Amino acid sequence: MKTINKLLLAGLLSVATIAAMAQPPQHEGGPDAMAGATAPAQKAEGQPNGGCMMHGAMPTVNFQSVKICFAPQMGAFIAIDSVECSVHMVKMTDNGLDTVASYKTDNTHKRHDLKNILRPVSVGTMGNHVVVLASAVNDTAYVALLDENLNVVARRDFRSPMYAIHIEPGMMFIVGRNPYGYDINILPLCGGPEAFANNEMMTHHYRVAKQSEKIKQSDPIGIGLAAVAVAVVFLALVCICLLISGSGKLITSTEERRKNKAAKPKSDKAIKPVSEGSAAEEEVFAAIAAAIHLYNDELHDEEDTVITIQKVEREWTPWNAKYYNMNHYFNNRR
To answer: Between 276 and 70, where is the model more confident?
Structure first.
């Protein structure tokens, strides 16, 4: 056991030394703007029309899907019904809150391709218009601009799922995910609702590095990974050896305890010997002889040697009657 402990300690020290040598230097600067992004953003696919992009400092924006919002200019609530794939405009009436208009993002009647259904995920307002973002699970989404009666004024489609929108004066942000990372779409809104469908949209793709790429970047040669793998295998073998040796000792001790318990003689009462020529000895012998005689006499009872033969009369049964074995055709013949 001392040898095994020494080997284990030496292996752990060597692994720690190799891992410390393989640790990459820390780079200055904070993390990327997007969580988990490791590659710089690609160039925009299009340039904004006019000078509508707002420059300067902007407040921090948390992109979250909005299920319900209030449109002050329309005096109504805009709510999402993800089960029916519809958006409702709710206003205060004499009877309380009532739905005055509805818009269905997709038709779900008798559909089985649930992953392709465009369900509403977020709503917003832009003046007297309602903005609705609908997305499918796979790779389709669109953002629609609706009027006060929830009729479609303009629509922009996407080839990746989206989950949130944010509207700023002069621009709109639509964010989503792709198989490799994130998508950020910036839509200039100069020119009113017509710009929603005509203005060119900028799209930024942020690629999130995979775990294998992160390991390759921190350990290009693979020394640290090899050291960790060897250490894990070494520790596993040590644990298996300890388990096997402990189980063997436990089985051996159990078997020895069982054998000792089986070999231990039962405690019998000591019988005092009878001294020779005494009267008690003769009485013991007489009692033994009487017991043997009575036992032999009771083995068989006295039996009567008269044999009685009785005749037993049994009722007739057709079980073996030959009559029923004959063909009935001959019996019924005239």
So the answer is: 70
* Per-residue pLDDT tens digits for 146-202: 988 899 988 989 888 998 998 888 888 999 888 788 888 888 887 777 778 888 888
- Specify the residue for token string 């992109």: 63
**Averaged pLDDT of the chain:** 75
Written as six digits, the tokens of 307 are 């044999």
Q: What angle do CA 120, 122, 127 make, to 5 degrees?
A: 115
Other beta carbons within 10 angstroms of residue 34's beta carbon come to: 16
Nearest to 146 by CA among 190, 98, 101, 191: 101
Q: How far is CA 300 from CA 82, 250, 297, 303, 305, in A?
A: 97, 58, 7, 9, 14
User: What is the residue whose two structure tokens read 């007489």?
Assistant: 286
Q: Provide the whole-model pTM.
A: 0.50
Backbone angles phi, psi at 191, to 5 degrees: 105, 10
Q: Which residues contact 187 (CB under 8 A, 6 or more apart)?
A: 156, 171, 172, 173, 174, 196, 199, 201, 202
Distance between CA 155 and CA 97 in Å, rounded?
29
- Alpha-carbon distance 133 to 174, whole Å? 9
**Range 289-295, long-range pairs (CB < 8 A, 24+ positions):** none
Asked if pLDDT for residue 233 goes beyond 90, the answer is yes
- pLDDT at residue number 47: 39
pLDDT of residue 142 exceeding 80? yes
Cα-to-chain-centroid distance, residue 190: 48
Element (H, E) at 241: helix 223-263
